[in-house]
TrEMBL record:
Location of the protein in the cell: Cell membrane
Protein family membership: Belongs to the MotA family.
Boundaries of every MotA/TolQ/ExbB proton channel domain copy: 99-213
Keyword hit for Cell membrane: yes
InterPro entries on file: Flag_MotA_CS (IPR000540), MotA-like (IPR047055), MotA_ExbB_proton_chnl (IPR002898)
Topology in the lipid bilayer: Multi-pass membrane protein
Transmembrane intervals: 33-52, 145-167, 173-197
Recorded superkingdom: Bacteria
Record keywords, A-Z: Cell membrane, Flagellar rotation, Membrane, Transmembrane, Transmembrane helix, Transport
Record bears the keyword Ribosomal protein: no
Protein name, as recorded: MotA/TolQ/ExbB proton channel family protein
Length: 263
């Protein structure tokens, strides 16, 4: 569970809720007409921008903003170094069926065990990486579009409410409900965009970049293992994926090359 996403969204919702409760009755902020216009209208407009498959997948992908967790980079590097040592001692066939924490990496290890060439591994795993990026990008784009559309639908609701109010100026009983629609639809649109859609979209973009980086790390490691690189060389290659301060610490803690081992 990503606590930053959960705490951030819940915290914002609680603060807005407290402002509503402490200021006046919460019922004042409930307007079914405005909700129907902004929420329903926004979803239908966003659906029109994408395919039905992309639209449905986006809401499944939204769960990644809350519970998706990639392996720790340093732990993944250590795991790959151990796999490299194992393959040098017992051959690439030993990599078949190794228990690893990623289906993507498991697929690459199986390709090594099956004797695929380095060129085939790079091409096939690169395509797999691009397809994963496309799927993840679709989810981010849908929520980004929702963040753009919701305030506009709120403004449309405001205009509808103002027209209704002006058209019924001779009936005081109609002015209040029309004004409520005019003001609350703007509020609903702003809340959907800034408290739901945009944060989830940004987190999905972040997840996409993190996963793409990790997959590239795995591809580099697979090619190095295929090329029978020294595990020490492999470790040094992969430390570029660590933050600069972690690279220095990793270099200090890493053991020296074993004498007699070739690179």
């Amino acid at each position: 569970m990503d606590l930053a996403t959960l705490i951030g969204l819940l915290g914002a919702a609680v603060l807005v809720g407290m402002a509503v409760i402490l200021g006046t009755s919460p019922e004042v902020f409930m307007n079914p007409t405005g909700l129907l216009l902004v929420v329903g209208g926004s979803l239908f407009v966003v659906m029109a921008k994408f395919t039905l498959t992309q639209f449905k997948f986006a809401f499944k992908a939204a769960a990644r903003a809350f519970k998706f967790q990639l392996p720790n980079t340093q732990e993944s590097i250590d795991e790959l170094v151990e796999l490299s040592k194992l393959s040098r001692k017992q051959g690439l066939l030993v990599l078949e069926g190794q228990d690893v924490n990623s289906p993507f990496l498991a697929k690459g290890l199986q390709m090594l065990a099956d004797g695929f060439t380095a060129e085939m591994i790079q091409e096939m795993m690169g395509k797999e990486r691009l397809l994963t990026l496309e799927r993840n990008e679709a989810g981010g784009r849908v929520f980004s579009a929702l963040g753009e559309v919701a305030p506009s639908m709120g403004m449309i609701g405001t205009l509808v409410g103002l027209v209704q109010m002006l058209a019924n100026m001779d009936d005081p009983a109609m002015i209040g409900p029309a004004m409520a629609v005019a003001l609350l639809t703007t509020l609903y649109g702003a809340m959907i965009a800034n408290m739901i859609a945009n944060p989830i979209a940004d987190k999905l973009w972040l997840r996409m970049n993190q996963e793409a980086k990790m997959q590239q790390l795995w591809i580099d490691a697979l090619l190095a293992i295929k090329g029978d690189k020294n595990p020490r060389v492999l470790e040094q290659m992969l430390t570029i994926y660590l933050p600069p301060e972690r690279r220095v610490r990793s270099d200090e803690e890493s053991p020296r090359d074993v004498p007699g081992e070739s690179t």
